[in-house]
Amino acid sequence: MDQQSLVSLILILITFALYIGISVYNRAKVTSDFYVASRGIPPFWNGMAIGGDWMSAASFIGMAGTVMVLGYDGLAYIMGWTGGYLLLTFLLAPQLRKYGRFTVPEFIGDRFDSNPARLIAAIATIIISFTYIIGQLSGSGVVIGRLLNLPASTGVMIGVVVIAIYASLGGMKGVTWTQVAQYMILITAYIIPIVFLSLQISGNPLPWLTYGNVVNELGALDRELGLSEYFAPFEEGNKAQFLALLFTLMVGTAALPHVIVRFYTVTTMKAARWSGAWALLFIALLYLSAPAYAAFSRFVIMTEVVGSPIDNLPGWTEAWLNTGLLEIADSNGDGVLQWEELVIHQDIVVMATPEIANLGMFVVGLVAAGAMAAALSTAGGLLITISSSFAHDIYYRLMRPDATDGRRLQAGRIAIVLSTIAAGLVALDPPGVITQIIAWAFALAGGTFFPVLFLGVWWKRMNKQGAMAGMLGGLSVTLGYIFLSMAGITFFGIQDTGAGVFGVTANLILVIVVSLMTPPPEQRLQDEVTDLRYPEQMTYKDGQVWMNDNSDK
């Protein structure tokens, strides 16, 4: 093992010990600890935990590279994910928090007074979260394997062991405070390299203010080389795919069960809104940095690598050529590297930036620890969601309503361990690349849940028949389109990553048509929906709005 690998390994092991220590200290003792952290997380820290939950391996490693490779077209990811959080924060999260349940399936089951709807929602939640966690475990395997010179499969299994330990011990309470620590590590690791790179290129340490000038210079370089301009829209894809992907990511974000459940961990509707606001701020720190990463990295490659003699490239390129993530070919035989002779994998950008900026072994190791934090933080939230869907919604609410707290905790922990092992086995040979698998999870979440949650909160006429038809139809159409697209059959040029646009459309039509063709829900359920539109100090009942007795407390 070389010196760099040793430093990276030490930093990663220190962070692993920190995560497990936090989980042991915050070990869940009752079911409310395990599922919703006893609803006692302050909004600021919950916002930071949401940021950690959200920053997956794909966001940390892949987003900047996607923007660098795709240019304008890669912005669909940033716009979609950000827009989804706005939808969730303003239109769903406070209302779901006021309803006061533990999980998304529990909200759907009680809102429509239907155990079949609860079961469908629980199974769909497990499918969505399982799909998502395969991508996260694949990411952890790639990071560990690349940095420690181990097979990716070994890296996956290391990630499986760490996640299973801290998620099963701490439950939502432990995972929340672990995600806070993981956010601090990952955002530090993300920001430091780009600050130094900005300082080296522009003389200004604030990359968010300087990369615009670099983009202009890239445009001039592109024109000089006869390339399509970096910031020209729809040069790398078609407009339909761009819009479908943006829409899929937006509705998927607003409907992901492991994201929604984070809003159940605070005390009030107001705290839920503030959690969303803080989360947007913390997420923005990374999202606003990703285009800067893309611009600076492309600038360095175009000015310091392209045009250089192939036998005299910068030293940092050698290690990445060995990984296969950077490829060169002297196709015209002139001994000088041309842009067209260079193939750059999108995962290289963030991981290689510390070496490009010559920041030393500690920062390279810190970025490795940050990438692992990103993969583990999202995986922890996903495992809690899978666990609660099985142990709370299926085992407790449908099979054993008389189960004790101890039994429920035991069922939850067993579900975490088993689902981690199962996802790890699938992740050893993943069915797609990381960003593709995660996009499927967003498509499935949007196609199955978004219309049902949105109309379930804002349309009191919606009934259980409409909810079940919508979820089953949306899930089936989304899955069907993903398989069709993988087989080469697409409509309007929309790829599998944009499948959510078809699933949401089918879901919406089915919910409205079936609800209107079947009897309306009973008045009690309609009053509960109307009540969600009022602040917590007020209750809607029997056609009137009542002030709560403890509203002054």
UniProtKB/TrEMBL annotation:
<feature type="transmembrane region" description="Helical">
    <location>
        <begin position="6"/>
        <end position="26"/>
    </location>
</feature>
<dbReference type="InterPro" id="IPR019899">
    <property type="entry name" value="Na/solute_symporter_VC_2705"/>
</dbReference>
<feature type="transmembrane region" description="Helical">
    <location>
        <begin position="242"/>
        <end position="264"/>
    </location>
</feature>
<feature type="transmembrane region" description="Helical">
    <location>
        <begin position="411"/>
        <end position="428"/>
    </location>
</feature>
<feature type="transmembrane region" description="Helical">
    <location>
        <begin position="181"/>
        <end position="201"/>
    </location>
</feature>
<keyword id="KW-0472">Membrane</keyword>
<feature type="transmembrane region" description="Helical">
    <location>
        <begin position="500"/>
        <end position="518"/>
    </location>
</feature>
<dbReference type="InterPro" id="IPR050277">
    <property type="entry name" value="Sodium:Solute_Symporter"/>
</dbReference>
<keyword id="KW-0812">Transmembrane</keyword>
<protein>
    <submittedName>
        <fullName>Sodium:solute symporter family protein</fullName>
    </submittedName>
</protein>
<feature type="transmembrane region" description="Helical">
    <location>
        <begin position="47"/>
        <end position="69"/>
    </location>
</feature>
<feature type="transmembrane region" description="Helical">
    <location>
        <begin position="434"/>
        <end position="459"/>
    </location>
</feature>
<feature type="transmembrane region" description="Helical">
    <location>
        <begin position="117"/>
        <end position="135"/>
    </location>
</feature>
<dbReference type="InterPro" id="IPR038377">
    <property type="entry name" value="Na/Glc_symporter_sf"/>
</dbReference>
<dbReference type="Pfam" id="PF00474">
    <property type="entry name" value="SSF"/>
</dbReference>
<dbReference type="GO" id="GO:0005886">
    <property type="term" value="C:plasma membrane"/>
</dbReference>
<dbReference type="GO" id="GO:0022857">
    <property type="term" value="F:transmembrane transporter activity"/>
</dbReference>
<feature type="transmembrane region" description="Helical">
    <location>
        <begin position="75"/>
        <end position="96"/>
    </location>
</feature>
<feature type="transmembrane region" description="Helical">
    <location>
        <begin position="147"/>
        <end position="169"/>
    </location>
</feature>
<comment type="similarity">
    <text>Belongs to the sodium:solute symporter (SSF) (TC 2.A.21) family.</text>
</comment>
<feature type="transmembrane region" description="Helical">
    <location>
        <begin position="471"/>
        <end position="494"/>
    </location>
</feature>
<keyword id="KW-1133">Transmembrane helix</keyword>
<feature type="transmembrane region" description="Helical">
    <location>
        <begin position="276"/>
        <end position="296"/>
    </location>
</feature>
<keyword id="KW-0813">Transport</keyword>
<feature type="transmembrane region" description="Helical">
    <location>
        <begin position="359"/>
        <end position="390"/>
    </location>
</feature>
<dbReference type="InterPro" id="IPR018247">
    <property type="entry name" value="EF_Hand_1_Ca_BS"/>
</dbReference>
<dbReference type="InterPro" id="IPR001734">
    <property type="entry name" value="Na/solute_symporter"/>
</dbReference>
